[in-house]
Amino acid sequence: MSADPHRRAERRSISEQVADSIRVYMQQHELQPGDRLGREEDLARQFGVSRPTLREALRLLSSSHLVRASKGPGGGIFVAATAEEGIGRTVSASVASMLQAQSITIDELLETRMLFEVPLVGLAAQRATDADVERLHALLAEGESRPDDAALVGSVDERLHREISLIAGNRLAAAFNAWVVEVLQPPLRELVAPAVVESVVVEQHRDIVRAIGRGDPAAAERAMREHLVYVRDLVAAIDGAGDG
Amino acid sequence: MGARRRVRGVAVEQQLPSTVPADEERLGRLNDLLARVVETNAFQRERLRGHLPLDTLAGLADLPFTTKHDLVSDQAAHPPFGTNLTYPLERYTHLHQTSGTSGTTLRVLDTPEDWAWWRRNIGVVFRAAGVGADDRVALAYSFGPYIQFWASYEGAQDVGAMVIALGGMDSVQRLQTIRDYGATTLLCTPTYAVHLARVAEQSGLTDALSSVERVVCTGEPGGSIASVRRQIQLGWGARCLDHAGLTEVGSFAYPCDSCGGMHLREDEFVAEILDPETGEPVPDGATGELVVTALARSGFPVVRYRTGDVVESHPVDCGAGHPGRWLPQGILGRSDDMVVIRGMNVFPSAIEQILREFDGVGEFRITFYSDPSAMDEVKLEVELARPLEARAIQAQLRQTLGLRVRIVPLKPGILPTQIGKARRVADLRSTQPAVVRREGRA
Prior knowledge:
The complex is a heterodimer.
Chain A: H1 5-11, H2 14-28, E1 36-38, H3 40-47, H4 51-63, E2 67-70, E3 76-79, H5 83-100, H6 106-127, H7 130-145, H8 150-167, H9 171-192, H10 198-214, H11 217-240
Antiparallel strand pairs in A: 1-3, 2-3
Helix pairs in contact in A: 2-4, 3-4, 5-9, 6-8, 6-9, 6-10, 6-11, 7-8, 7-10, 8-9, 8-10, 10-11
Chain B: H1 23-40, H2 42-48, H3 68-77, E1 94-97, E2 107-110, H4 112-128, E3 136-139, H5 147-158, E4 162-165, H6 171-181, E5 185-188, H7 190-202, E6 214-217, H8 226-236, E7 239-242, E8 244-246, E9 250-255, E10 262-264, E11 269-274, E12 287-294, E13 305-312, E14 326-327, E15 333-334, E16 339-341, E17 344-346, H9 348-355, E18 361-370, E19 376-384, H10 390-401, E20 405-410, E21 425-427, E22 435-436
Parallel strand pairs in B: 3-4, 3-5, 5-6, 6-7, 18-21, 19-20
Antiparallel strand pairs in B: 1-2, 8-9, 9-10, 10-14, 11-12, 12-13, 13-15, 16-17, 18-19, 21-22
Helix pairs in contact in B: 1-2, 4-5, 7-8, 9-10
């Protein structure tokens, strides 16, 4: 954030300023994904800029995953995501490209993940409602019903992490953490599949869910750390399996 | 001792060493040997000069230790065979080498007389294991330059048993051969015995296990560890016996079929059990490094050889009256394997022993490392067929060893199978080079 918004504004192009204005407009009006902003020409008129300038502003917003254009009758510019969802998608897209380019290691990602998810589960343990706990227990029971079913346990794992991130009740933190489920989980699951003992994962889920249910943040954080360290250890075991 | 000639039909017990000779007799043999050696053996002359003859066996304590490093360095300076040779090269007929990691390979030469001594001593091992002329002994070793196969081959001949060589075969072929020829006795490392039983289960070859009455282990600690032993006994439906020796030393311990563990061959060796740090004898009940001096091997003699094997100085005789100090737990580990974790001495073999008490434990790997706060930690990666035991194992390690261990349960088959000498320990602590520990044993 700049200390001097005027100087900052001077350096920004008109289209960037228009994009900022649209962003503010969306948030002030609490627009939700799917809401219609209007047609291009309406928006250009509303913000007092030319069509090409507006188009450039929309392009910026769309690359931040915030708006999308729809053609045809009833078409126009629509809200694609809330601000925090937009952040989440932007982070996910960046992480995905880093992963693809191998400019970041799985271990770095796993370490980052611990920085977020351990405190997040502590918040979740403080803030979970009875309904939240009930949902988590239902998820846990699903895993416990077939603790050796890799596909099932993988899917439970994904949903559990997403739920906890939401229960923590901090939308920005949840947004920053969305890449875990969206980008990291699929290749990670494939990577550890030969080594992971699913029933151990279910056991770790149980510890996490019970700690949240008891409203015990320290135990929840400990259980989450153990769970995430296990994943890192699995990656290390696979990396080191050929050394012997 | 009575094991010098094959005599069929004579009770096995009668051919074991019946007593350990009196100290004066052993001292006399040692002085005779050293007097002969010091004249022509350049390596020993340097070390023994001025000390001979010894007045008592205890006087050995004044002689310098011999380490594997001493012998390897000597051979590096005088390749390929070094200077620990009492006779001209043409007198030697047998060449073996240790399977040490690269750079530590030791070459050991034997004369026909010394090789006959090897044969008799392995014969004692077989007799103690109850192996006789009606047995078929399967040797699950390669035909490499390592002594284990060749000495076992000779020892089996010494008791008149039939040898079934399993070199050049994979595990399935070995099982088929054991089955087809009705082997009664299997020789291998304890790790391999466990592995082979597992392969038999997986390959539908459990009928190969039925003819085997005994598994005679060597090559690494484990054959005397109760849990490993039980696993082999259950897997094979056979007795499990242990013996110990080193290429550069000889066969220095024979199995105790009555009470488990092993006995030291004190009729052929002077054995000391010493604190590896101070070199002083350990008190009864304590563990220390086994240091041995061979009384008869003149071609490649070793005096106060640091075996690196950790044993308990056990003050009690076995119930069956076998001669030679009893090692009820056999070899507990390697002194060079011992690591100090948060002020405690930890032997990887002790961790293994606890692991083997649980069903469904497969391969494992122990890593010592420093966490970011520079605390020494232990990570145990372990394949578990019954994963819910992970926490029970953790609790047991904590209770028995007082050690906090991070357990990483893995699906079976992910870690490399150790079928020879086990290399399951890595020390990655920051103060140490990142090397895999555990020297190969002969």
